[in-house]
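Sharing a chain and its predicted structure for anyone who wants a worked example. Both blocks are below, sequence first, tokens second.
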Amino acid sequence: MPAPGAKPPSPSDDKRWRIVNGTMRRHGYARDALIETLHTVQQSFGFLDRESLKFVAASLRVPLSRAYGVATFYHFFTLKPPGKHTCLVCLGTACYIKGAAGLVTQAEKTLVVRCGETTPNMSVSLLMARCLGSCSFAPVVVYDGELVGNEETNRLQKRLEEWVGS
């Protein structure tokens, strides 16, 4: 950890670190800015790697274990680079009852990866969420930020096959 009051150096000369530092500065480098700062890192870089977690923890004077704990607790943080496309399947109660587990099975079969992984060619990341709050449209899948309700396995498979081929 840096000396009290000293700011640790950014992990690289990448200009995106200015945005991250701006977020921390706006909050006075307060410890309770951890989640917002991690959001800024993820928005800027696409994921949270070990170096970014170490930098944020040192800058906000929190233990690395706390930064890592926050990053792994919340489903919207990822520790791996995302694929070009993202498929997020809701596994909340309503979606599960209406067939979301079958959607996950089909997606895993089509992509040849497990939920939470990215295809080896980095084309698609397959993710799951506990609930997206769109229960009346169950089962719900989010493709690159676009929510699709009443999803069916054949449509899911078609979309994923298009993505893998691109």
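Comments welcome. DSSP finds seven helices and four strands in the chain.
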